[in-house]
Design brief:
alpha+beta; 6-stranded antiparallel β-sheet; 27 strands
């Protein structure tokens, strides 16, 4: 590591200690030691004793052990699914690189994604951590021409400067032929691939609304619908040609001609995540005959995997025996989920949560600012929160029980690593299956609350549009249910009074009940959402606040 010092002095940066974080204390979703089992809700906090502070987040990331023959474009592509890459420094002689993201939020998301399972480049593991440097200054360095050319090419593609097939255009749209529905073929199916496995892999690139699996020409195939075509584009770009398991189960991905999927049943062959009320339809086809005709002869749809000699049959949704695919490794190298051929189960190293669990463990909270109601509002953006318990003896930790395992996974994906009240949240699956309410007479200080019957649940209504408007935390918030009497200044003042720096604001031109407001940071937006969602604006109007994918 010390050999890097000379290289970095030329960059005009003060060298810090860019060493890998110790295993078991790394900064990501699965950072807890599994050596101390928790027996009661109050004991989850024990797992945090002895934790050391991780390296503070930075938009500059340090990559180690990169292959000598790797290209600049390959390194850049590791960051592409998470946001714009603004600079790159390759130190091939040291097998290292520094990648600068456009924002710290993008870097946090990237580190959280790659922490549970190591990403690969050219079949070699690559290690990623935060750098001590806040930015890269490579203007005067030699041998930077290739890196800058690769960055320019990527930026031109992302901004629509190049008319390439399969890339977003300048106005943010997609060329013809790119819908939000992907057609997925799994080749060399040596291990079972289930609907839940596909969901866990593809949900890393956006909100998955629907999945249908079927068999055609003796090949396991699937149709998967995102909430946004851009998510489908990045998933295809990152996952096409990758292996789910080592040397087998290769993904072949194309855009479907269909623009939407019509799912009739929720079972192990099909799932509509926006319609939890659908019947299981035991023994029935997963899709209607008109859609089946789009894939081939009607009636060919069958179980995705009947079970091969020596392997278990397909694992049913939602709970898979031995399955806990809470994160996948690099989307740009082999997915390399380790397997146990004797049982046909999946086992990702470092994952300690119980599969199908709806209870989340939230740690590193600010005990002076957080409340059960605040956690209910924040986690309620990604699902219906049933119960919240802040630990009585360790108020930095809390348990949040969602309506189901899918919602808990969604909340964990989006909120782990985000800053709230000056602290970086850590969110992982709890070992508990439910949050226990305090016994009668037990001291609790109002730290445990039941929200099962709350009228503020966003996803209670089947088929609600809220399912299609789930986005990661962002500095821009979407406001709705605004009464006619409320002005721009009223709303700016309301958000300003919470301590936010209001950067921009605009009403929707055709509907003044809705607006976008841009705040100074993602952290400010998260805090404003907690404090102002359901705020009474008068005239029987309560403000609705959610994260927006748009910018002003």
């Amino acid at each position: 590591m010390d050999g890097v010092v000379t290289d970095l002095i030329a960059v005009g940066l003060k060298r810090g200690s860019d060493e890998l974080l110790p295993s078991g204390i790394t900064y990501g979703p699965f950072t807890m030691s599994s050596s101390t089992p928790a027996t009661a809700n109050g004991n989850d906090s024990k797992k945090f004793k002895g934790d050391r502070s991780p390296c503070s987040p930075s938009r500059v990331l340090h990559l180690r052990k990169i292959p000598n023959d790797v290209t600049e474009a390959e390194v850049i592509s590791l960051g592409l699914p998470f946001g714009k890459v603004t600079n790159l420094l390759m130190l091939k002689g040291k097998s290292q690189a520094f990648l600068e993201m456009a924002s710290e939020e993008a870097a946090v998301t990237m580190v959280n994604y790659y922490t549970p399972v190591t990403p690969h480049l050219r079949s070699q593991p690559v290690y990623i951590q935060y750098s001590n440097h806040r930015e890269l200054k490579t203007d005067n360095l030699p041998n930077q021409a290739r890196a800058q050319a690769a960055l320019q090419a990527v930026n031109a593609v992302q901004s629509g400067g190049l008319a390439l097939a399969g890339v977003p255009t300048a106005d943010g749209g997609l060329p013809p032929g790119q819908s939000s529905v992907l057609r997925i073929i799994v080749e060399n199916l040596f291990y079972p691939v289930t609907l839940e496995v596909l969901y866990q892999i593809f949900s890393k690139f956006g909100t998955v609304l629907k999945i249908i699996t079927f068999t055609k020409n003796n090949q396991f195939q699937a149709l998967l619908q995102y909430s946004d075509p851009v998510n489908a584009h990045y998933a295809k770009m990152a996952l096409d040609g990758q292996n789910i398991y080592n040397a087998c189960c290769t993904l072949r991905i194309d855009f479907s001609k269909l623009t939407s999927l019509n799912v009739k049943y929720n079972n192990d062959k099909s799932r509509d995540f926006t319609r939890l009320d659908l019947p299981s339809g035991d023994g029935q086809p997963s899709i209607d005959p008109t859609m089946a005709a789009a894939f081939g002869t009607p009636g060919i749809i069958s179980s995705p995997y009947a079970g091969a000699a020596g392997f278990a049959p397909a694992i049913g949704f939602p709970q898979a025996a031995g399955l806990s695919v809470s994160a996948v490794p690099s989307a740009l190298g082999p997915l390399a989920i380790t397997t146990s051929a004797m049982t046909g189960r999946l086992a990702i190293p470092g994952v300690t949560g119980i599969p199908g669990n709806s209870v989340l463990l939230v740690s590193n909270l600010n005990p002076d600012a957080i409340t059960p109601d605040g956690l209910f509002i924040l986690f309620g953006v990604y699902g219906d929160v049933h119960r919240v318990k802040i630990m009585f003896n360790k108020k930095e930790n809390a348990l949040v029980q969602m309506a189901d395992a899918t919602q808990s996974q969604l909340a964990m994906n989006h909120l782990n690593g985000q800053k709230l009240y000056g602290k970086v949240l850590r969110v992982t699956l709890s070992k508990h299956q439910t949050v226990q309410l305090p016994r009668e007479g037990q001291e609790d200080q109002g730290l445990t609350k039941d929200y099962s019957n709350s009228p503020l649940h966003r996803f209670k209504k089947p088929g609600s549009k809220n399912f299609q408007n789930i986005f990661p935390p962002s500095a821009t918030l979407h406001l709705s249910n605004i009464p006619p009497s409320i002005t721009v200044e009223d709303l700016k003042s309301l958000f300003g009074n919470t301590g936010c720096n209001v950067k921009n604001f605009k009403f929707f031109p055709k509907d003044r009940k809705m607006a976008l407001i841009q705040l100074g940071s993602v952290e400010e937006a998260i805090q404003a959402l907690i404090e102002l969602h359901n705020h009474n604006l008068g005239e029987n109007h309560h403000l609705r606040v959610s994260f927006s994918k748009s910018t002003i």
